[in-house]
Amino acid sequence: YHMTVRFDYSASALERQLQDSLQRTGLGRIDSVVIHDLEPTPHRDEATGDDGVATADWHFNELRKSGFEKLLQLRKEGVIQAIGAGVNIDEDGEDPEKKRAWNLKYVAALLGMHEEVATARGTTAERGIDFLLLANMHSLLTSEAHDLGILDACAASGVSVVVGGPYSTGILATGADPADGSAPMFNYRPASEEVRVRTRRVEACCKRWGVPLIAAALQYPLRSPCVACVIPGGKSAAEVASNVELMNLDIPEGLWAELEKDGLVK
Q1: Which residues neighbour 231 within 8 Å (Cβ) at sequence distance 6 or greater?
Q2: 3-class SS at 254?
Q3: Phi/psi at 14 (nearest 5 deg)?
Q4: What is residue 116's predicted lDDT score, i.e. its pLDDT?
Q5: Cα separation of 136 and 91, whole Å?
Q6: What is the C-alpha separation between 227 and 218, in angstroms, rounded?
Q7: How many Å apart are CA 77 and CA 23, to the nearest integer?
Q8: d(CA 89, CA 103)
Q9: Residue 63 DSSP symbol
Q10: pLDDT, tens digit, for every residue of 230-244?
Q11: 216 close to 251: Cβ distance less than 8 angstroms
């Protein structure tokens, strides 16, 4: 498996990955770990028509059989402080309905997996998963996390949400009509005209309130009570500094009220 990606969510594999990370970083513990790419996306094969669901299910069963219990043990021992899991919107040409069905099943199982472990052990359930990292599912242009009830489910379970992709992979940072004339990106693909029209409406509203679109995009997810933080990413020190400045910008409550009134956000 030299220099290749190997998917393995069993107890032994997760512990080995963690120990490798501790060795490389020279740390004695890790603040948080994220169960990543446990979804059909990386296992799709367009040539054969394989949608990746069966393979993802197999890996998910590995997590349920031993992997998640190992993560609970490592957290109890103080080796890790928090357990999270990534959940993504449909991407790279995936069937949106199949991805929604997967996400609903996956999130429901994650929120109750600590109880499964307790039942198998014959013990009282301890704290479950600490947070979900929702990528491109909760932004000024995407209400997937809201529509699927994921935000409400997390709030009801006391599970925090980390929002990734607040700029919807580009268009909420560049605007619908980038100054350099390039095509704006939405969900890793050139934005459709429908998405661009909606973005222009959001931009116009922001302009009326004197708020940069990118600042509104960065701060909007935090209006949901269960959202603990937003991770926009930054490929340079300048972008990181800009993100900090945008996060600290005061945004009038009237902007959000107008966006809601116009049906642009929920």
Answers
A1: 133, 162, 163, 164
A2: helix
A3: -65, -40
A4: 86
A5: 10
A6: 12
A7: 18
A8: 8
A9: I
A10: 999 888 999 999 999
A11: yes
Contact of 146 with 97, CB cutoff 8 Å: no
Tokens of 121: 């052990």
Q: Which two tokens stand for residue 140?
A: 């000024």
Tokens 């947070």 label which residue? 131
Mean pLDDT over residues 27-52, rounded?
91
Residue 247 backbone phi and psi in degrees, to 5 = -70, -30
| Pairing outcome for strands 30-35 and 189-190 | unpaired
The one-letter amino acid code at 194 reads E
How many Å apart are CA 169 and CA 186, to the nearest integer? 6
> Residue range 12-41: average pLDDT?
94
Question: Tokens representing 67?
Answer: 């992997």
Among 10-19, 66-75, 113-122, 181-190, the minimum mean pLDDT is found in 113-122
Please provide the DSSP assignment of 177-226 as one string.
Answer: S-TT-PPPEETTEEPPHHHHHHHHHHHHHHHHTT--HHHHHHHGGGGSTT
What residue type is assigned to position 99 of the chain?
A: K
CA distance 142 to 149: 13
Are 162 and 190 in contact by the 8 Å Cβ rule? The answer is no
